[in-house]
Input
Amino acid sequence: MAARSELPAQSAMPRVGDVEVVAIRSLTKGNAATGALLLDERIVRRANASCLQIGFGQFRLDAGSWIEIKSLADGEIEVFDGKTLKEHMGESSYFNGDSVRIRLYGGPKTTGQFYSISNLAIGRIQGALGPLSLCGADNRARTPEPRVGRVIIKQSNGIFIGTAWLVNGHLNGFLTAGHNLADRLLQSITVQFKVPLSSTSGATVNPSVRDQYLWTGAGGTKSGFENSGPGKDWGVFQTLVNTSTKKHAGTTQGAGYVLGIRPPASSTLRVAGFGFDTTPNSYNFVNQVSTGPYKGFQMDRLRHRVDTMGGNSGSPVQSVTSREAVAVHTHGGCTAAAASTNSGTLVTRLPFYEARVKVLGTLQDRCNYKITAVRANTSSVVPGQPIKLTSTLFNTGSSGLLARDCECQDPDSGPLQGPGGHQGQQPGCGSRQEGGQGPPDWFSHARQSCPGDGRPLDPQHEQEAQLHGLRE
Output
């Protein structure tokens, strides 16, 4: 039996540009006046570049001082003061064209104001990428899907394309492929929405600065990933507010994907994302969607025959029936051969779930909790207030299990009643309720922590329970 090919959807690393180390520095000047003053102006140009992105180095921007970056191709402007430039780790948005103008304004009564530029990301038209993961004829079509963003992966050796998507219940929480975040040369991640058509030559075109979001950084509680092959490939990260609107991506784009369990056999799946395309060139790395059959699973690996290409790594794999995202697309290999498939990692994979808890905090994965009671004299759920909720439990085992319902103890305010209104005990798990937006992710694993009440569950419990975090 011939071995199936395993081709990561980004194995060829869809490269859209280079990163150049530079040493550019503004004049160092002050402003003795009582109003803001233009201290320095210069043009940064790289011939034949499709876009430019600025990586700032050292700077001094005291109160009232700022930097203005303007694309000379389309007039897009981004402004940084000292605080926002530090928060954004010196990384600008991506600007169309081969030239930007940078102005330094000094605040009143300031001295020694300056900035330096340590690197430039330079958009280039790259060579054609072969069809790695089309399942026969290409049936992808453009989509305005607002929850899916194009990821610009900036490494010290170039810039690359991937896909990421918003998670329901989080204004700035994204899921993607682990290999998008795993390279040791990674410098930054930028998520772009409302991506326009590419040029007739296939060069990417950037959206407005208002639709670009820089990640919060790598490691710790900022991001997490696994990059160990099919079924063990996932990434999670957060983004900062937009530099222009001061809003999070979820505020502008709307609610993200609700996460779901593995789909039933014979399901139809949907994948949206930013794959390579030359039919026509203007569809290259723009948001497209395709559907195809679910082809089973192996452990935490989901197989599917949905058309993807390089750049689709990180796309949501969505059940057409439930409309829930059940996996993140990571690997290619699909051809016209019926036995070939693409694949992704199920969102129910335990390390993936645990990383979402660590990075994103309170989760709302497929929430079907219903609030049944709140403290007297109020109808709002607020932090530190006890509430009662009901929820459905499921059993994925082959035989019936006792229904085990739990009460969660909020250390600040008292008990939070668990599903079904029955009591057990899982202390210290209800204090992460945020702004009354939804229930905390506080249940313990039903088979391990709470006493049963004698009612059997059907064989659909454990998988969904794990998705909700029902584990010790």
Remarks:
- Confidence is low (pLDDT under 50) at residues 1-5, 363-368, 393-472.
- Residues 350-360 form the longest helix (11 residues).
- Helices lie at 82-87, 249-253, 350-360, 446-449, 462-467.
